[in-house]
């Protein structure tokens, strides 16, 4: 842990111990991540610990609260925007978090001296490559591929403290919605997206300015205002779907290098204002560089952790990473829109012991009564049994004998159980199960 933020050399040797490392040339070290090799340099500051979060994809894990909020957001956009019965938004929720500085910064008009680029705020793999600091990093490439309406969902990485509301890895949902003149102003051919001085056929000739706080110089005020109204009403619609109609909110003027004008949405929650998202009208240079020069687009980015913590009253952001079943079962198979209030689980650690046994000839994996087994486990083990779950069913291909495996999760509410005492109780349960059901422990 103390090695976490040591500078280059020590960090590299830490990476060495966990990842395959090129030793051929001592001066040119390489970091291997997911089978790909990156040459490290004086910018390299990713640590093995941080790299270990890659691919965890909490936003896609079934019972994780982040995944539940993700599904609710996706459903909102799917159901609110359809074109000939098909959802207008495409979803990208599995893009690699390894991006170039061009994707994360340059494509988004973030200046080379902008503070968000500094080494102390980002996890760099090397000078040109980093773990994305926001999902907006994928905006230009998706626009370039011809998409106009899309959501980008994934893990983002920022160097930060670890406390109850900050963790170096969190999850964002980012979106772009673009419209052509006919879509924005249907039936009103005299209304324009662009000022007459902007030539859609010669877009690179125009020097776009953001000096006017109301709009970009290329856009008409009508187009900007209508986009602003749509953007805000779509996002308030989402907020109300999540938090209910009576949620108190306010819009705050903001600045992002890649949008103009820009806003942040805050909601009043537990007696204070909390920022939940940033948004704005996409800078026209970005659209022009990526391809479409005849559209206007809005974009936004929101944090899933903040929403999930507020919605389910989860007090600590680290809980999102919990593999503790006492946490995850509270979100298991719940109705997406159910109001769930997280109940703190005991802070004493769990112990999990598995129990496998062969069934007697008169029983099969399908006729064995799991509920009887659960009761017996509770009878013998008492209150320290937190959970019992079926882990595996097995029929031996030759002997045709049937076998079951259960995980028993032990946790004391007032103290830490030692593995030795858990093993003792586990043995007693095994004995009782043999006696009660005639099984043979494997
Ligand atoms: C951005 O990341 C912009 N890319 C958002 C954006 C996209 C603006 C498109 C305009 C157009 P920001 O750093 O404010 O902005 O983060 C966006 C949201 O992510 C925040 O509103 C918040 O909900 C969440 N967030 C930011 N930092 C953290 C953090 N340390 N922990 C948890 N959530 C965070
Ligand atoms: Mg912000």
UniProtKB/TrEMBL annotation:
GO biological process, one term: phenylalanyl-tRNA aminoacylation
Annotated keywords: Aminoacyl-tRNA synthetase, ATP-binding, Ligase, Mitochondrion, Nucleotide-binding, Protein biosynthesis, Transit peptide
GO molecular function: ATP binding; phenylalanine-tRNA ligase activity; tRNA binding
Pfam family name, one: tRNA-synt_2d
Superkingdom field: Eukaryota
PROSITE patterns: AA_TRNA_LIGASE_II, FDX_ACB
Domain FDX-ACB positions: 346-442
Residues annotated as domain Aminoacyl-transfer RNA synthetases class-II family profile: 69-344
CDD domains: PheRS_alpha_core (cd00496)
Catalytic activity: tRNA(Phe) + L-phenylalanine + ATP = L-phenylalanyl-tRNA(Phe) + AMP + diphosphate + H(+)
Function of the protein: Is responsible for the charging of tRNA(Phe) with phenylalanine in mitochondrial translation.
PANTHER family, per database record: PHENYLALANINE--TRNA LIGASE, MITOCHONDRIAL, PHENYLALANYL-TRNA SYNTHETASE
Name by which UniProt lists this protein: phenylalanine--tRNA ligase
Organism of this sequence: Helicoverpa armigera
């Amino acid at each position: 842990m103390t090695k976490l933020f040591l500078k280059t050399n020590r960090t590299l040797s830490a990476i060495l111990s966990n990842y395959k490392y090129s030793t051929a040339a001592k001066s040119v070290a390489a970091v291997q991540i997911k089978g790909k090799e990156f040459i490290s340099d004086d910018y390299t500051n990713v640590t093995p610990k941080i790299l270990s979060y890659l691919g965890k994809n909490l936003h896609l894990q079934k019972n994780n609260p982040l995944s539940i909020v993700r599904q609710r957001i996706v459903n909102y956009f799917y159901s609110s925007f359809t074109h000939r019965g098909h959802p207008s938004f495409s979803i990208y929720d599995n893009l690699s978090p390894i991006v170039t500085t061009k994707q994360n910064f340059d494509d988004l008009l973030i200046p080379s001296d902008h503070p968000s680029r500094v080494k102390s705020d980002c996890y760099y793999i090397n000078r040109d490559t980093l773990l994305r600091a926001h999902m907006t990093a994928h905006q230009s490439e998706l626009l370039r591929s011809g998409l106009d309406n899309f959501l980008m969902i994934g893990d983002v990485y920022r160097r930060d403290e670890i406390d109850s509301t900050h963790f170096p890895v969190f999850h964002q949902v980012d979106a772009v919605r673009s419209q052509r003149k006919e879509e924005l102003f249907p039936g009103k051919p005299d209304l324009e997206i662009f000022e007459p001085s902007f030539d859609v056929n010669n877009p690179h000739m125009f020097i776009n300015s953001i000096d006017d706080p109301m709009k970009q110089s290329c856009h008409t005020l009508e187009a900007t205002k209508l986009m602003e109204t749509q953007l805000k009403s779509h996002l308030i619609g989402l907020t109300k779907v999540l938090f209910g109609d009576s949620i108190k909110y306010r819009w705050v003027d903001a600045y992002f290098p890649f949008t103009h004008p820009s806003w942040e949405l805050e909601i009043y929650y537990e007696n204070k204002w909390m920022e939940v998202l940033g948004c704005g009208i996409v800078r026209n240079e970005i659209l022009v560089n990526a391809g479409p020069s005849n559209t206007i687009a809005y974009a936004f980015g929101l944090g899933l952790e903040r929403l999930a913590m507020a919605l389910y009253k989860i007090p600590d952001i680290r809980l999102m990473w919990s593999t503790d079943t006492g946490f995850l079962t509270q979100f298991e198979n719940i109705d997406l829109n159910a109001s769930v209030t997280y109940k703190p689980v005991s802070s004493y650690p769990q112990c999990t012991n598995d129990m496998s046994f062969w069934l007697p000839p008169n029983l099969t994996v399908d006729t064995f009564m799991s509920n009887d087994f659960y009761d017996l486990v509770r009878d013998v083990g008492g209150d320290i049994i937190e959970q019992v779950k079926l882990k595996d069913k097995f029929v031996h291909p030759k002997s045709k004998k049937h076998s079951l495996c259960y995980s028993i999760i032990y946790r004391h509410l007032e103290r830490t159980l030692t593995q030795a005492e858990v093993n003792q109780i586990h043995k007693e349960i095994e004995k009782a199960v043999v006696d009660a059901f005639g099984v043979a422990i494997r």
